[in-house]
Amino acid sequence: MMGDDLLLRRRGGVLFLVLSAVLVLLGGGADAGVTSSYRRKLEATVEMPLDADVFRVPPGYNAPQQVHITLGDQEGTAMTVSWVTASELGNSTVKFGEKPDPEKMERRAEGTHTRYDYFNYTSGFIHHCTLKHLKHSTKYYYAMGFGHTVRTFSFTTPPKPGPDVPFKFGLIGDLGQTFDSNITLSHYDDNGGDAVLYVGDLSYADNHPLHDNNRWDTWGRFMERNAAYQPWIWTAGNHELDFAPELGETTPFKPYTHRYPTPYLSSGSTEPFWYSVKLASAHVVVLSSYSAYGKYTPQWTWLQAELQRVDRTTTPWLVVLMHSPWYNSNNYHYMEGETMRVQFEKWLVDARADVVLAGHVHSYERSHRVSNVAYDIVNGEATPVRDAGAPVYVTIGDGGNIEGVADNFTRPQPSYSAFREASFGHATLEIKNRTHAYYSWHRNHDGAKVVADGVWLTNRAQSYAVFFLDRTKTSSMAIDHQP
Ligand SMILES: [Fe+2]
């Protein structure tokens, strides 16, 4: 009997070990980071030539060009239309209404114009006009160029912010104006989002001799096919600085601020580089990696107050944009976001932010839910740890700009990194309701609809009770689901 008993126990022990190994493999497999083995074609990243069709100047004398829109207030009842006239001022009037014929558009708004010099370049006349008192979820047509060449476009205003309002964001960064950029934009067009969260680095004009600002114009014409029809929420990147004392250009962000307005005043900000908007069920906070963020600075002061203003009962999803990532395991721009992470990460963890989006690194990476907020200069606890209450960090600086793909990842892959791949692409974030959103990344070398990395995200605010008890433990409510 003793022998049989021992045998059974041994068999049980072996069975237990086998089962444990299977569980570890399954659990570990789902949890461990993935460095994608996908290898993109080895080819140069080439700027589209100046005579490319996507850069074509629209026909007609002084025709409005480089048309793009962004929210004109915090809640989506205003839209700011921007465009350029090249030959003469024309006017800054926009007619708009629910009928497509400009003659039948019942409302009109008067905008302003500006222009700037940059070394040997003088811009066209840059017009900005905010259309106010719009209804939510309504298709509006708008037209400008009266007196010369009239052009007509349309947009649909975002829905009234509320807890269960579906909305699809496009997530794009570091786009530039190469052939790859064109694929990225086309794929996003095909995937059909409602608004773009853009994480910085727009035209890459500064990569050209004398920061050739004509490349700001070509970029504006390239983007128009999407940006004239849905709002783009802008984040400032390092390529927006255009700081060139050797050219006598010492005003940071000069071309960017003249061309791309943001609705910063409506969220109590004092600068266009940090602000917030509410879109459907999301409260979107935009931060500036290239403005001061130390204690007592304007951005620090604003963010501290802003996080108190976020109302998760109305906008359950808290999404944060910045240019330089806090969690980046690529050697390219490694740890550049570290000082801002040290300054602000605890605030975002305490605020239970859902997703933090960044660009800057020209590849793709998604983190697990992690935080690194325990360090106090003497305790040595300076390592990212799994934290079910913390945001997911996504680096989406893979739009396809002239600088090429960043294919030099640190090894081994750090434990906080869930998926990374050195390819160009874009992502979408589809908010379904107050609890669930589907996030997916689409590499350019596949069709637009192919999901190369996807995850269901569950809302952090809705899971508050779970995390309040123990932030380090997951529960069925807290786990994000890989499809
Ligand atoms: Fe950058």
From TrEMBL:
Regarding protein family, the annotation reads:
Belongs to the metallophosphoesterase superfamily. Purple acid phosphatase family.
Q: Which GO terms describe its molecular function?
A: acid phosphatase activity; metal ion binding
Question: Source organism lineage?
Answer: Eukaryota, Viridiplantae, Streptophyta, Embryophyta, Tracheophyta
- Organism of provenance: Sorghum bicolor
Under CDD domains, the record lists: MPP_PAPs
InterPro entries xrefs: Calcineurin-like_PHP (IPR004843), Metallo-depent_PP-like (IPR029052), MPP_PAP (IPR041792), PAPs-like (IPR039331), PAPs_C (IPR025733), PAPs_N (IPR015914), Purple_acid_Pase-like_N (IPR008963)
What's its top-level EC category? Answer: hydrolase
According to UniProt, the name of this protein is Purple acid phosphatase
Which positions fall inside the Purple acid phosphatase N-terminal domain? 64-157
